[in-house]
Every structure is written in C-alpha cells, then in structure tokens.
Design a protein that fits this description.
alpha/beta, eight-stranded mixed β-sheet, three-stranded antiparallel β-sheet, 26% helix
C-alpha cells in the first residue's frame, strides 16, 4: 500500500501500532484529500520578535500556559484506559456513538495516545466509533524488547501485544491504526539476546504486526512516529528560560534509518503509511511552538491543544479510508 504524507524534507542529520498514522492522501482506492499543514514554520509571536524589552512577554501568550503544560494530554490517562507496565490485558476506551456503523481501533504505546484527542473529537462529530488500547512503553511492533528500567525483557508487553492482535480480530474494525516508537537499539532475538541487525529485526517486527492486524479485515494504518524533542532537559524548562521559542527547536531526523525501514516493511505488508513528521517538522529544525501553541508537553508527547488544532489533518487521511467499502 502507498504512503500518505507531505513531500519529504531534507534531514539535518543522517542515520538513524490500536493507533498507526499528510497533508495529501496519495492513494487508497483513488480517494484524495486536500493538502493540510504548513510548508514552513510560522513566525513566533510578535512579542518574541520585539527585541530585548519583550523578552518574557511571549510566554504569557503560549497555549497551553506553561503552568498547565504537563497536564495538557489525552483524557485516556484519567479514564485509566492505558495498560500499566505490569498489565497484560488490553484496556479499551471508547468514544463516539455506541451504534455507529464505522469503527476505528488504535493500538500502541503512549505515543499512540498523542492523537487520541483528535480521534475523539472527530468520532463524536462524525458519528463513528473510536476504540483505543495502549500500554506504556510497549511496542506494538512484534518483537521482544529490553527495557532496563523495567528489569530487562518486557514480557508483559509481549503478552499484551498478542492480546491486542486477538482483540483486533474479534472487533473487526474498519480501520486499525498502529503507532508506537520503533524499538531501534533495544530489540531482542528469540534467545533473549540483543539482535545483531536492527534493520532486519524491525522490518520483520513491522511485517508481523501488519499481518496480524490485517486478519481483522480492516484497513491497517501504520503511523510513523512523531519527532522527539531531543537535546533539551525538558520542553517546559527550555521555554521558561529561553530568550525566544525558536531557541527550543531541535534538529530534524526525518531521514533516520528506522523510519525508512519501517515504511518499506509496512508498505510491502499491505499497510497504509501515515507520517506526521512533515506536519510537525517541515524544515531542518523542528519547532516546539507554532504561533502561540506549544506542540510538546514533554520530549516525546504532544499537547492536547496542538493535536485538536490539527484534527483537520487527521480527517484528511482517515475519512477516505472510512469511506472505502470493506
């Protein structure tokens, strides 16, 4: 299946899901959607450009306010829909009308939760059902992982993942979105040892996940991961101490090896690939503030305020898939 996304942008550095997620829908039964999203980073608030005399006033214009930044997140957390690190059962949150004729299932880790506010709003407005099942630090990509902070091999994740696959087959959603960080650098082989070839291991893991999810009968979407704000102690700290919001930007890694490997494997396995990277990071430097809106609540998670502002982007690729007959 083809990828959905904005044109690729140059990377500043070489090298280097249920929910897997563009301004343009390039295929899927020939359906199209209008482009969405900026091609360049919008200017900082006027007060951030006004010179030394206005060095702090731009902070007062930020939304969400810095004092509420950490709590500006999907409501899956207070609803306790995300499985904990020791849980093996899938905890589902449901949004949208119970009698809806169309269903979207999102699976993955906490990064999949990034886009839940947009799915939630669209489901309620569009009269379709959104089901979300996520687990903290757990890759939806079918490979064992080593998480030192959790004591080594994340066995609870392995069990949860296969329960998620079984849930998708039982639920039979119209669209399954898989989205999680790619476990590059901490994958384990069948003997529990670090893999020798990260590229081959990730390709096999993504392929296996797509094949499992395709048994649901729905369209499988693999959402590539969002940019991660690297090199900062924290987004909030940076914005509190920086002279301008631009000082908190970070280098684009859109050409990272794991993204290329995952995209190719997903397409070959028959998934639709959705890439939010160009939306969030259209240039060589990724902003953490756009206009007055703060994009990140921490290094790897987006603010609810920002995600709701981009629900038109989600609509642009998701609705054509929901309109496709099974």
């Amino acid at each position: 299946m083809p990828s959905l996304g904005h044109p690729a942008t140059p990377a500043a550095a070489a090298g280097v899901a249920l929910v897997c997620l563009l301004g343009v829908l390039t295929a899927c039964g020939g359906a199209g959607a209008p482009p969405h999203g900026p091609s360049t980073t919008p200017p900082a608030p006027a007060s951030a450009r006004a010179g030394p005399g206005a060095a702090t006033s731009w902070r007062d214009e930020l939304r969400p306010p810095l004092g509420r930044l950490a709590g500006d997140r999907a409501d899956l957390y207070p609803r306790k829909c995300q499985a904990g690190t020791r849980d093996t059962a899938v905890k589902l949150c449901a949004d949208g009308p119970a009698d809806a004729r169309r269903t979207v299932l999102g699976l993955g880790d906490s990064h999949a939760n990034n886009w839940q506010p947009a799915y939630q709003a669209l489901a309620r407005d569009g009269r379709w059902r959104y089901l979300s099942g996520t687990k903290g630090r757990c890759s939806i990509w079918d490979v064992a992982t080593d998480i030192p902070a959790l004591g080594g091999r994340y066995r609870a994740c392995d069990t949860w993942r296969h329960h998620a696959f079984a849930l998708a087959a039982r639920t039979r959603p119209d669209v399954v979105v898989a989205h999680a960080r790619f476990p590059w650098g901490y994958m384990l082989d069948s003997a529990g040892r670090p893999v020798r070839d990260d590229g081959a291991a990730l390709a096999a893991a993504v392929t296996s996940t797509v094949r499992h999810l395709r048994r649901s009968g729905g369209t499988v979407v693999v959402m590539l991961d969002s940019p991660t704000a690297t090199g900062k102690d924290s987004v909030e700290h940076c914005l509190r101490t920086a002279t301008t919001p631009a000082a908190c930007g970070f280098p684009s890694l859109t050409g990272a090896a794991e993204r290329t490997v995952a995209r190719r494997a997903a397409e070959r396995a028959g998934a639709v690939v959705v890439d939010p990277y160009p939306l969030l990071c259209p240039g060589r430097t990724c902003p953490v503030v756009r206009g007055h809106i703060v994009l990140y609540r921490d290094g790897g998670h987006l603010t609810r305020t920002y995600v709701l502002s981009e629900r038109g982007w989600v609509r642009s690729w998701l609705y054509p898939l929901l309109a496709t007959p099974r």
